[in-house]
Amino acid sequence: MIKMINRLGNYCLHLRNRHLFLIDVFLFAFIPLFALSLRLDSALGFILTFERYQSDLLLVTLLFMVIKLTVFLSGGFYKHYWRYASVGELSNVAILTGSAVIIQTLSFALLKSLSILSLPRSLPFLDGLLTLIIIGGIRFSVRALERKQQQDKTFERRDFRKRALIFGAGDAGVALAQELERSPHIDLLPIAFVDDNPAKLNLRIRGLPVLGNRSVIPSIIESWHIQTVIIAMPSLSGKSLRNIVALCQQTGVETLTLPSLQDVLMGPEKLHHSIREVRIEDLLRRDPIQTDIEGVRELLKGKRVLVTGAGGSIGSELCRQIFQCSPRELILLGHGENSVFQIQQELQQMSFFRNSKGQQNGSAPPALRPCIADLRHPSRLRFVFEEYQPEIIFHAAAHKHVPLMENNAPEAITNNVLGTKALTDLAVEFGVNHFVMISTDKAVNPTSVMGASKRVAEMIVLKAAQTSGIPFVVVRFGNVLGSRGSVIPTFKQQIAVGGPVTVTHPDICRYFMTIPEAVQLVLQAVVISPGGEILMLNMGEPVKIVDLAKDLIGLSGYQVDKDIQITYTGLRPGEKLFEELFLPDEEYQKTEHEKLLVVKNASNIIPTQLPQIVASLLQSASVNNSMEIRDLLHKLVPGYQVKTPVSHR
To answer: pLDDT confidence of 410, banded at 50, 70, 90?
Structure first.
């Protein structure tokens, strides 16, 4: 008997829409008779009822069949794949059946008024109700059989899958549980939910119990033999995520997470493909940034956009996000051929994906123009401008490593100062529409050559805005996690070899932001700023570097001091304990975006002798006179203190 039921189930699963169409035609021939028998509540039975109303029933059956088939066919009813039917398909069944009932009722009333029919007036409604129940039931029985087969496969493999506890019984958590249940090849079996919402306590969602809030995670792991915890709340703050990870680490179970909302928007991956280990960036996650995406897209769409430093961590992310805004051309300018090649290949893959899915918004993917060039060579840079005529420029190219630049002051000046000056001069000459320079909080009261060189670069850009009227803007922010200059890659390498993890000072703090978050705000700055301003990203609260080290050691599965030691090495040349965000004379205020602050008087505090000192700086750099460079920076940059040069020997 069970084998017969299984065979019948398999047969039903292989029904196609053409088969269902024939089944519907057969059923439509009998539903009016069944409806009339129910209406009359007659003991006559189907045969006697049919004989009594034979001519009327034949007419109504034919009429109703034509109406229903016409409505269903025109509504695409026979184009659904019923094995994966959902609420959308159920709504479609109800809407089409309701439409058919309305037409049936009007047609029936017309025939009744002409004394052609003697049947009860409620017949069209009863016919529609039975149609909805029978036709809908057949469709969703296919879906039920499909789910039963999935559950059978899951049951067969459940002893071989890791028992997973899902934190978050919201949309993301429920969708994840559903996908894991119907994907037995994934090595994760959802067992239960945990959620901080008390209204969900003791409920069952998709058959899985909601066992409590985060405080009971350790006891649930032990009593339910949980092997993996999946944090399925993309909007969860970094502080809450850190708390949950700490609870899981107490028990030693694997802890996975879904990406943040910003990351979810970046790609079309299936939900279960997005499950990954918790990263240090997740522990610093802040509330999602609300950006004027349409405003940014409108600004960049159809434009020729140039990104300098396109192969760097910030530059490459700029390219990714700008690419999504459909510019006409994207000019990838960088000095390192390998990094430019890599971002070019990545964007070409994105172009291929967009073409395979159909052109987005009816526009072709941007033309990619990779340019290997050094900003310090004006003739090469001029060729790029003449060849591609950029309309919008994002200047991300710079030397950023503080200790390295402290020992290589001429290189910091030629790259950060000369490169910026050459770029702004050409931007003014060619009349670009917008110019955005990426700066750093190290330019505020700098203690390093690198920071001072970036402050000079800021002055050059603001001076260009004054003299040209072009909307030049500077965007200043702190450290970004995952960038090449970040401490995270260094910590990971040190942990991989067993430590120790080196921190320069126990009290050293930095402001941190993820790369995608910083770039979103940079793009937003272009929309907000009229030019001639410094925009400062609201970096949140500063983070102790030693706390980052401890978190990363924990995420790597080790214990601080027991498995991996932390040692302090002392501040490096040019390094500060605390970074500052604003100069003493700067006046700042909020903008229409909560994460962006503007320095309103930035253009008013540019030294009058800027052109002369910049020329002297470049001359000193050309002859590798580091001491003279430091003296000139001291004259030009308020707050910069000359440091004794470090010997190269």
So the answer is: very high
Fold type of domain 161-283: Rossmann fold (3.40.50)
Instruction: Report how far residue 332's alpha carbon sits from residue 311's, in angstroms, rounded to the nearest whole number.
Output: 8
Which residues lie below 8 Å from residue 149, measured CB to CB, with a gap of 6+?
9, 13
- Residue 416 has phi, psi (to 5 degrees) of -80, -35
| CA-to-CA dists, residue 153 to 84, 186, 282, 371, angstroms | 17, 12, 34, 53
Q: Is 153 a catalytic residue?
A: no
Q: CB count, 10 Å around CB of 55?
A: 10
475: which 2 tokens? 């965007």
pLDDT tier at 198 (50, 70, 90 boundaries)?
Answer: confident
Q: Is the pLDDT of residue 406 over 70?
A: yes
**Segment 131-174, tens digit of pLDDT:** 888 877 777 666 666 555 555 554 444 556 788 899 988 888 88
pTM score over 0.85: no
For residue 634, pLDDT beyond 80? yes
Give the helix/strand (H/E) hosting 257.
strand 254-257
Q: Sign of dihedral through CA atoms 276, 277, 281, 284?
A: positive
Taking alpha carbons only, the member of 404, 206, 434 closest to residue 327 is: 434
pLDDT tens figures, 89-123:
677 777 888 888 888 888 888 887 777 777 878 88
Higher pLDDT, 420 or 74: 420
Q: Which of 442, 463, 550, 576 is catalytic?
A: 442
Dihedral angle at the C-alpha atoms of 582, 583, 584, 587, nearest 10 degrees? -60
- Which SS3 state, helix, strand or coil, does residue 329 take? strand
Domain range 388-636, CATH architecture: 3-Layer(aba) Sandwich (3.40)
Instruction: With CA atoms as reference, report the closest residue to 238 among 205, 191, 286, 272.
Output: 286
Domain coordinates of the chain in residue numbers?
A: 2-154, 161-283, 388-636
Query: What's the confidence (pLDDT) of residue 156?
Result: 47
Q: Tokens at residue 52, please? A: 């009594």
Q: Name every residue whose Cβ is closer than 8 Å to that of residue 123 and which is 6 or more positions away in sequence.
A: 32, 35, 36, 39, 60, 108
Task: Write the CA distances from 75 to 64, 78, 208, 291, integer angstroms.
Answer: 16, 8, 36, 38
Contact present, 340 and 332 (Cβ < 8 Å): yes
Under DSSP, the state recorded for 560 is: B
